[in-house]
Amino acid sequence: MSQTIFERIISGELKANVVHDDETSFAFHDANPQAPTHILVIPKKPIPRIGEAQPDDQELLGHLMIKVGEIARKEGLAEDGYRVVINNGRNAGESVPHLHIHILGGRPMSWPPG
Fold this sequence. Notes:
This protein is of the alpha+beta class and 114 residues long. It is built from 2 helices and 5 strands; from the N terminus they run αβββαββ.
């Protein structure tokens, strides 16, 4: 099976504007931003989507969510607020089959989304 674009970014094969890199997670600015700040936080472990995460992924998923908050604070989004989105499947707008968490901020968000 071929690598996803995110696996190619993690490996350094493709360039990205990286904001975080640790042993289990990676974050970078989205190449097609939907807000002034649009960052993707991904696990290095290739989990296709949140609906396919397993019980043994619990610690990794918690780590990702903590990183979301840390990155949002570092990017100056915490005071005015930001949106966190995880798409699961084609009808939700998922375009890459590798779990990714969107951090969107820098503008007011409307409700309902989509």
